[in-house]
């Protein structure tokens, strides 16, 4: 008898879940999210360290209510930024930026790398990789003006 009651409770519970899903309660909305990123200067030659700037956009489409998008920046050296949050009240794009300071004439005179946006929530997607390259050069030193040698008499 107890076994029968458990089976009836399970059947009622499964039926309720099915009814909610059929009625559209608990379904996932088809929100579209995309991200793009570019290096402001993708090639640098000069004194180091240098700050490379990146500019991008996160775009949402088909939202029916405000949503929060969590994202971070991933780097080619394995570094990641803290997770950040954007709130979208309607379809559209929001600009995002980050910087990366690197380069050292002796320790890292040249480097080729990339940065990407990773959207973590409500879906997990990645942007394109924004590639860049740096080459450090010796700082230009000011040479003292050449003074003529005094003439001997």
Specify the number of helices: 1
Q: Percent of residues in helical segments?
A: 10-25%
Shape field: elongated
Mean pLDDT: 83
Low-confidence parts lasting 5 or more residues at pLDDT below 50? 1-28
Number of strands: 9
Please give the radius of gyration in angstroms: 29 Å
Structural class: mainly beta
Strand content: over 45%
Terminus-to-terminus distance: 129 Å
Looking at how many chains there are and whether they match, the oligomeric state comes to single chain
* Major sheet summary line: 6 strands, mixed
Written account of the structure:
Helix content is 14%, strand content 46%. By secondary structure, it is mainly β. The strands form 2 sheets. Strands 2, 4, 5, 7, 8 and 9 form a 6-stranded mixed sheet that branches. β7 and β8 (125-126) form a beta hairpin. The relative contact order is 0.22. Residues 1-28 have low confidence and may be disordered.
List the helices and strands and how they pair.
Elements: H1 2-22, E1 32-39, E2 43-46, E3 50-61, E4 67-75, E5 84-88, E6 92-102, E7 110-121, E8 125-126, E9 130-136
Parallel strand pairs: 2-9
Antiparallel strand pairs: 1-3, 3-6, 4-5, 4-7, 7-8, 7-9
List the defining traits of the structure above.
six-stranded mixed β-sheet, 1 helix, 153 residues, mainly beta
């Amino acid at each position: 008898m107890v076994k029968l009651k458990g089976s009836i409770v399970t059947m009622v519970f499964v039926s309720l879940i099915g009814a909610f899903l059929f009625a559209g309660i608990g379904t996932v909305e088809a929100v579209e999210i995309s991200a793009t990123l570019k290096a402001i200067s993708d090639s640098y030659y000069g004194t180091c360290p240098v700050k490379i700037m990146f500019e991008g956009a996160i775009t949402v489409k088909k939202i029916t209510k405000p949503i929060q998008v969590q994202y971070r920046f991933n780097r080619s050296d394995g570094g990641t930024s803290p997770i950040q949050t954007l709130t979208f009240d309607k379809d559209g794009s929001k600009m995002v930026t980050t910087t990366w300071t690197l380069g050292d004439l002796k320790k890292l005179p040249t480097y080729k790398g990339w940065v990407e946006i990773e959207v973590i929530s409500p879906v997990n997607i990645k942007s394109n990789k924004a590639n860049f390259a740096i080459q450090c050069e010796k700082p230009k030193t000011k040479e003292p003006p050449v003074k003529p040698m005094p003439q001997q008499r």
